[in-house]
Every structure is written in C-alpha cells, then in structure tokens.
Amino acid sequence: MVGRNLEEAERNVAGRVLSNRKTAPGHFHLILELPDSFTDPFPGQFVMVRIPGRTDPLLARPLSIYGFSRQEGGARLELLYRVAGKGTALLAGLHTGGELQVLGPLGRGFRIAPELQTIVLVSGGIGIAPLTFLAEHCRSLPAVPAGREIVCYAGARCSEALVGLERMEALCSRVVVTTDDGTCGACGIVTDPLGRDLPLFPPGETAVYACGPRPMLACLADMLRESPVSCQVSVEERMACGLGACLGCAVAVRSGEDSLVYARACKEGPVFDIHELDWR
User: Fold this and answer.
1) What is the per-residue pLDDT across 246-271, written as a single tens digit (0 to 9) for each?
2) How far is CA 102 from the centre of its chain?
3) DSSP line for 103-163
4) In which element (H, E) is residue 91 found?
C-alpha cells in the first residue's frame, strides 16, 4: 500500500487546460499543459484524470492518450474523449485556464517492431484516440528501405460518432471508413473491408493494432485466428484505480490449452496480444 501511494504521488501532476473543443456531438478534444516532470508516454498508455476539489464522482476517469509533445519548460498532453457519464460530462464543462489532476502515464502500451513495412490500424468509435498517437509515433520512426505504409480502418455507429478522421488521414497512406448505418463511408462493420484486404498485406512485414468495442475486437480475433499476421489490441475495460490495486478491470487471459487466468487491464494491459485474451 505504501508503494502504491508513493507511485501515485510521483505520477500525479496538475494540468492546465489550454483548450477543450467540441469536435462532434458528445465528443471533445482536450489539450492540457503539464509540468516538465511528466514522463513521456508511449502509444497505448493512458491517464487517470479528475477535477481538483471534487469528490463526486469519487473515481478518476481513465482516458487514452491522443497526443503528446514537449515544449520549453513543460509538456502538452492531448485527450480525445466521448461524454459517457457524469465524470466525462464534467470534463466537457472545463474551460481554458481550468485545472485538472492527471495521474500517469499508466499501463502497458503497444509493442512496435520498427522494421515492419505495413502498419494496419483498426478503430471503433473513440478507439481512434490511442491509434492516432501510435500512427504519429510510427511516422517518427526511421523509414524502412521500401517505405512504411500505415493503413487505418475506422468504423463507427454513424457519421456523428466518427471523430479524428482528418488527423488520421494526415498520418496514414489510406483511411477506410465504415458506419453501421451507412451515413459515412461504406455501410457495415469495420472488419468487413479489413477482411477483404488482409490477404494483400505481406504477413511477415505487417502488424495489426486495434482499439474499440469488445464485439469488434472479438470479430477481429476470429478473423485472425489462423492468420500469421500479428495483432495487438487495446481493451476498453472500466477502471477504478488505474494502478492495479482494485482488480476491477480484470480480463480473462488464456493459460495453457483450456485454462484461464485473469490480468489487470490497467497494469498488465490495456494492450494485449489478441490471441492472449479469451473472447468467449
């Protein structure tokens, strides 16, 4: 308990709101200025945020990191979030100059092989946030001899739930869009076009990274069950402490032929190998 409290104190910093812009119905892009002591995050990691002085809601909110940069004397953290409850509704009311407590960076991010030629990103809804940070990171890596291609498959329920496309399009060679109701891009689920294109990607030089609702990830796991292409997924489990103490975000992980163990999404994840998780 003493160790956890020390870890929390060291990673808990005060952030100042630089902007909190509504980008789509129920979706906001929050930019925070943080002290220089904030550790550089890795794509796939997350932060826990809370408004100082409030005890309702009691728990901080976990948010994926959308972008990060260093500036003289400080750092800039970007969060893209969807209003889903009381905590995120309060975040939506923050104005420039407001304060926010930020705990992080937390969790295990994506493992990236810099020699890969093809990066395939698969996002569902707000799952595009950590994948955008990943795409920016991959763009900063030295180019492989034949050039690196980043392809994104972005899906959502409807056009109003598609966020972050403009930024992703600037980072990717190609962005394929689907919506469940056909109001933007192709009508259908995002794994449909990916399934058609998958045989075209060189298996030994391709990695898939995904974040989105569990049904989307389960569908992807089924699609890739016999595929030689590697895939890592960031799960969107509910989290309470973010530090692995409460066990509230446990997910089932395969252990051996027929047995399961449980891993904490906030500590051992939120990024896992897609074949490591039990999707039943």
Assistant:
1) 988 999 998 877 789 999 999 999 99
2) 17
3) EEEESB-----TT-SEEEEEEEGGGHHHHHHHHHHHHHSPPPTT--EEEEEEEESSGGG--
4) helix 86-92
Is pLDDT above 80 for 5? no
Cis before residue 193, ω within 30 degrees of 0?
no
Q: Can you give the pLDDT at residue 1?
A: 52
State how far the Cα of 228 lies from the Cα of 71, in Å rounded to an integer.
41
Which residue pairs from 136-142 have beta carbons closer than 8 angstroms and sit at least 24 positions apart in sequence?
136/43, 136/67, 136/171, 137/42, 137/43, 137/112, 138/112, 139/171, 141/112, 141/114, 142/114
CB 123 within 8 A of CB 155: yes
Give the integer Cα–Cα distance in Å for 135 and 254.
29
Question: At a CB cut-off of 8 Å and minimum separation 6, what does 219 contact?
Answer: 189, 191
Query: Measured on CA atoms in the order 179, 184, 186, 192, is the torsion positive or negative?
Result: negative
Q: Work out the average pLDDT over 96-113.
A: 95
- Token pair, residue 143, equals 């180019």
Task: Provide the terminal-to-terminal Cα distance of the chain, rounded to the nearest Å.
Answer: 34
**What is the CA angle 108-234-246, rounded to 5?**
60
Pairing outcome for strands 174-179 and 186-187: parallel
pLDDT at residue 6 in the model = 60
Q: Is 161 left (phi over 0), alpha (psi -120 to 50) or beta?
A: alpha
